[in-house]
Amino acid sequence: MLNDQNEPVEFYDLQCMNVCVAKQRFEEHEKLALDYEKQVRDLKSEFAVFIDERNTWSKQEHFKFEKIRLEYKHTEGTHLVMERLRTEFPDLPLSVLKTHLEWCRQHVLFKQKLNCCRIRFNEERRKFEKETPAIFKQATAKVVAEMENAHEKEQLFCKLSEAHEKLRAWQAQLQSVLAVKMEEEKKKMEEESERLAEREARRLKEAQEKRAMVTARKHDLEMHEMFWASLAAKLESETKMDQFVQAKHHKERASYRMSLHSQKIEAVEVKRLAMEKMQKALEDRLALLRSTVAVEAKRDWNRTIQGTESSSAAKFVAPSPLFKNPSFTNDAILRDKRSKVSLALFDKGLLATDYARQYLISLCKPVPSTLLVHNNGEDVGHGA
């Protein structure tokens, strides 16, 4: 800033013969500075959490995060930026990425507001300081015009000297007050930094405790899964062993029944051959008898197709089966609880699930490893 002699001087070193005008301008200049400091304090109080430059992130990770955010600046409202962040930071959960993205937005907003406040203050201060010399000059010219009388010059000079002394004293007092205010502001900033550091330490401690709790929970879940996996493997091995024993049992029974079936078929075949042989012998004797006896009889087809007295007196006897059927009837099968449970599960669409398999296994009774003794050619074991 230049004075009337075009010499660089400080704002508070400007001279004005009108003390009231000078004091008023200096107080207004001080008020501008105080208003700016109050706006800065209000901004820092409003954005206290977003003042830190990296939000506890490392410099490299924060730089990488900020670079991606700026690349997607025009599409922040879409899902593209979150997909890119999840690709670049796969180890971090989605909630942490969203929180840090919102923190970056608030931090940028804080810087923008602080910069706007600073620019507005600098413009107002430059305008004020630019207008002040002209105002001082006009005030001084007015005072000088009022002091044109010679007899008042000396008295005016004394008054001006006293005024300058008071002004210098006031300036010194103002500097001391400003120094005290700066010291208080510095102390407040230090206290605020300590408070933020304590809060960050508490946050880190809570995060560490949560991670420890999550790790313990994961370990418990892994042990639980291992227990159920071992139990399932054990049940599967027991099921395979039971199936093997049952298959061996069914194979022995099937072999035995096939042998019985073969014996019965052979017996029926022998009986049939014997009957054919007897029938042939009878036909031979009848043919010999018909050749020796001549019978004259008229043909009566109505009498021929009618029944005889012997056929009418004979009782109908159902033919006996070739072999005994050892299988189960439907009523016998449904007496087993497993059949009813299987049908119910099939109707509900649950028969192919692990739950159905385990439940049916739990209903199985132990099967003997050997067949029971065959008595008189009949199987008296299970299923007979």
Please describe the topology of this protein.
Blueprint lengths: L18 H28 L12 H13 L8 H9 L5 H53 L3 H143 L8 H5 L3 H5 L16 H5 L2 H11 L6 H10 L21
Helix pairs in contact: 1-4
Molecular structure report:
With 384 residues, the protein is mainly alpha-helical. 73% of the residues lie in helices and 0% in strands. The protein is rod-shaped and about 200 Å long. The termini are far apart. The model is unreliable at 367-384 (pLDDT under 50).
Beta-strand share of residues = under 5%
Give me the strand/helix succession: HHHHHHHHHH
Count up the helices: 10
Shape: rod-shaped
Label this structure with key terms.
single chain; 384 residues; rod-shaped; mainly alpha
Summarize this structure briefly.
The chain has 384 residues and is mainly α.
